[in-house]
Design a protein that fits this description.
A hairpin with a 2-residue loop joins β35 (424-435) and β36. This protein has strands at residues 6-13, 21-23, 33-39, 45-46, 58-66, 70-76, 84-89, 95-101, 108-114, 117-123, 131-138, 155-156, 163-167, 183-190, 194-202, 206-211, 217-223, 226-229, 233-235, 238-246, 250-260, 271-276, 279-283, 292-298, 304-310, 316-319, 327-338, 341-344, 350-353, 362-370, 373-381, 388-395, 402-408, 413-417, 424-435, 438-441, 448-451. The chain has no helices and 37 strands. The strands form 8 sheets. A 6-stranded mixed beta sheet has the order 2-8-7-10-5-3, with no helix packed on it. A 5-stranded mixed beta sheet has the order 4-1-11-6-9, with no helix packed on it.
Length: 453
């Protein structure tokens, strides 16, 4: 915090007045006649006399001079209905209206920021009361009360941690364009590429800006009440500043939010599907921020094996010759570029277990004649990697299953002949084949039946 050298100067006058403020750019009640123009001496009481004699076209005028910019507080006593007017006296003696003050309640205080110069406050009606003027001179001619009003004095803060500060009457000065409003600076040093934003929680009209080392704006947020955050932006390592400014004296909380730059892209949601008996197909949705994708397979020891890097036009990949009976785990990371470097978005795993069973064979039954006898044709459709399909049958629902024969190689079926008319025959099949040099079997197929004609 910056400890300013200050001295308080008080002026009291007898005049009943409580006020609200309305600014204007021209003289008010300019047609009234002024009487009793007096110089207000600092730390001296001035007695206001009734000069109206029942008329409202006369007023008192009290002039005071400020050698330095500062905060002037007018405190009015007595609950009256009398307005007062504040002017800035120009070099040529003319007056520029600053504000009109209307009484509203007992002992109301009004604080203004005034620059160096000459001023005049008038009391146009026939009221008597008290008026106190406190003048606080700030030697730095600034509203700054914290030792962080420039980047070189910025307070070091931690990312993702809110810090509380205060804007001190930043916009309440009404004259002297050279008067410097309060601003607060905070500093963060980023050691790695990051995605950052700024959050501002305030009840006033305040603004928070992230600046880089070249004093260029990175991102900003304005807040007129509540909690608001800026958009996320990617930045390279370096020193960054958060500058907070506002137009009223209010407390605020500001946070520089940081995330790993890898979170700039979306995590591809991967879907796995068994493409064949020993292959898996990966599919994912396209990410507009990505410049490519990298496909990884997780090894048994937890390490990742890079399978392939593909462009954004590709949203699927099939891996073949996989082992059966094992769970296969994949990760697809979105790639994106920033500052000439390539980054990969961390992503969740997708898993699929390949069954150690071959696909079940499919078949159809047809009544037929074979070698002059009643027969049933078992028409077989073998699945991929099935070298043969063994046919089993039974006579009647309660019969025992027996092996009929096997369909091998290019064979597509066989005839079951010398059957008995009127009996019902039941069939089921089982495949056998080699995958990656190992022999596997399928489960039994669905049972089908046909009555011999």
């Amino acid at each position: 915090m910056r400890k300013l050298s200050m001295k308080t100067l008080a002026v009291s006058a007898a005049f009943g007045l409580c006020v609200t403020f309305a600014s204007c750019n021209q003289n008010v009640f300019a047609d009234q006649v002024e009487e009793n123009i007096q110089a207000m001496e600092l730390n001296k009481d001035i007695t206001v006399v009734n000069v109206s004699n029942g008329s409202y076209n006369k007023r008192n005028a009290y002039e005071f001079k400020l050698d330095q910019a500062g905060k002037v507080t007018f405190t009015f006593g007595f609950n009256t209905q009398t307005p007062a007017f504040l002017y800035e006296v120009q070099e040529d003696g003319t007056r520029k209206a600053i504000g009109t003050y209307n009484p509203t309640q007992y002992n109301y205080g009004l604080g203004l920021r005034l620059g160096s110069g000459k001023y005049c406050i008038t009391t146009p009606y026939n009221e008597v009361g008290t008026l106190k003027v406190d003048y606080v001179v700030e030697s730095t001619e600034t509203n700054e009360q914290e030792k962080n009003d420039q980047a070189a004095l910025a307070n070091q803060i931690n990312v993702n941690t809110a810090v509380t500060g205060n804007i001190n009457d930043a916009g309440n000065h009404v004259s002297d364009a050279s008067y410097v409003a309060d601003v607060d600076y905070y500093k963060v040093v980023l050691d790695e590429y990051s995605m950052i934003s700024v959050s501002l929680n305030s009840t006033a009209n305040e603004k928070a800006v992230i600046l880089n080392e070249q004093n260029k704006e990175v991102v900003s947020v304005e807040n007129k009440g509540g909690d608001k955050s800026s958009k996320d932006v990617n930045v390279k390592p370096g020193t960054y500043y958060v500058k907070v400014s506002g137009d009223v004296s209010k407390e605020y909380q500001v946070t520089l939010n940081r995330k790993p730059i890898e979170e700039s892209a979306e995590s591809p949601k991967v879907t796995l599907k068994r493409a064949s008996v020993n292959s898996i197909k990966l599919t994912w949705k396209k990410d507009s921020k990505a410049t490519g994708y990298v496909i990884y397979k997780k090894n048994a020891d937890g390490t990742l094996k890079k399978l392939k890097a593909v462009s954004t036009k590709t949203t699927s990949y099939t891996q073949k010759k996989l082992s059966l009976g094992k769970t296969h785990t994949y990760i697809v990371r979105a790639q994106f570029k920033f500052d000439g470097k390539t980054f990969e978005k961390h992503a969740n795993e997708a898993k699929l277990k390949l069954s150690s069973k071959l696909p079940k064979p499919e078949f159809k039954l047809k009544s037929a004649k074979y070698m002059g006898t009643r027969a049933i044709l078992v028409d077989v459709k073998k699945k991929t990697y099935a070298d043969s399909a063994t046919i089993y049958y039974k006579v009647g629902a309660k019969g025992k299953w027996k092996k009929l024969n096997s369909v091998k190689g290019k064979e597509t079926g066989l005839y079951h002949f010398r059957l008995t008319k009127g009996k019902t025959y039941y069939y089921r099949l089982k495949s056998k084949g080699k995958v990656n040099g190992k022999t596997y079997y399928s489960e039994y197929s669905k049972v089908k039946k046909l009555k011999c004609k």
